Amino acid sequence: MITLPLHLMPLVYAGVFLAAVIVLWLRYDWRRERRRRAMWRGLSQCRLCAEWLRHGVDAKLFRCPSCGALNEKNHFNDI
Length: 79
Known about the structure:
2 domains; two-stranded antiparallel ribbon; 41% helix
């Protein structure tokens, strides 16, 4: 059994509680960021009419449904 002086017990309790809160906070933030990235994946903006559209992840070229312009997937027009 672990013996602790009475004056150290509140400090240990506060430390364990704070560590649990930080771990839960980091886990929640990691999951939220992963969901946000998945939501924006495959979303691009048409270069001609500036409408936002969703395209296939593997598609190199995709056509805008509103103006019919061909757009290419690159890192500059993706979010």
